[in-house]
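Issue: copy button drops trailing tokens. Both records pasted manually instead:
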Amino acid sequence: LPPDVIVLSAKASGNRWQLEGTASQAASLVPLLAKDARFDSVHTLAASSRFQDGRRARETFSVGFIVRATP
């Protein structure tokens, strides 16, 4: 994940994961994770919202994905 990402919650059930948090570019996370061969079915779970953190604009994210089994 990019260095500006803050993960506030990580949940797993077997190989199904869910991450929630904030980032400066939340929309870029799904394509970034989808390019990683370790993950499958990367998708957005909830709409993103924008907010100001001091002078920085931040966005919330909620993404789900499946971690592929390693051979």
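Record 2 (pasted manually too):
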Amino acid sequence: MPMLSADPSFKLLAICSCVLVLESLVLAGITPAKRAKHKGYMNPEDSKVSFGEARMVEGAEHPEVARVQRAHRNLLESLPLFFGLGLLYVLSGAPVLGAQVCFIGFTTARVLHAIVYLNAVQPWRTIFYALGTFCLFGMIALILRAVLAG
């Protein structure tokens, strides 16, 4: 059995997965940066590391912080689907061209979705979300085709 690392679909899955995890880490870092910008903190002990006057957030976050959290949560909801389907895709031996279209398409759509989400740009947010979802459906179809044909 050949090594997975030699499989072009696996290489692409690894690259796209790393890009998406980096995106998640960036969004995770933007959240406390926005809190600091608006001088808010969630936990009492966080006041010890805040710079200047800060207040405890009671109940609702500042709208900018909440927007970043929603974008991050939206990304996190889709990542397990992509990771699971991507692995099934590679293991099923589905076509490399399909991996290129679906993996790169999904990754690009998710990165652009976060950018337009953070900047409150519609209808692009919905368009990029839909494109990412279509890529997942494409992966499902190609996986089923590969396993049912073989």
